[in-house]
Amino acid sequence: MAYVLIMDPTPPSFAQQDAAPDSPGSDRRAAARWRRMIWVGFGGLCLALGVIGIVLPVLPTTPFVLLAAFAFGKGSPRLRRWLEDNPRFGPAIRNWERSGAIAPRHKRAAVGTMSVVFALSLILSLPPMVLIIQGVCMGGAACYVMSRPSN
Question: For the chain, what is the HEC assignment?
């Protein structure tokens, strides 16, 4: 079976596009629509976790907000702009994108929270292997956070 491509100078109307669901372009459009919806959904989940992290000190806010900005950039430029213009989240996104900077206040909060969680793990007498894994992971994360420039 051969396909013949006919070039029509007038673009099809929306009714014609909807009436021909088997056209080759409709599959790509549907796939692109699904990808955007997945990115927006992932961004919404990350933003929700970031907002929860504002009131729950064990959950970090900034990494989830940065992930949300990335995901919204892939799925919805409008939501990305809204997040960048937000007075609470916008400065952290701009600082990170401009220079990979983390505010000193946030560095102290991150390392302090990791220290408290590790101390609590020691107090609860978690198994040594858990403490070793936790110490290595948190130590690496603390080194990374402290090595980032300040804004």
Answer: CCCCCCCCCCCCCHHHHHHCCCCHHHHHHHHHHHHHHHHHHHHHHHHHHHHHHHHCCCCCCHHHHHHHHHHHHHHCHHHHHHHHHCCCCHHHHHHHHHHCCCCHHHHHHHHHHHHHHHHHHHHCCCCHHHHHHHHHHHHHHHHHHHHCCCC
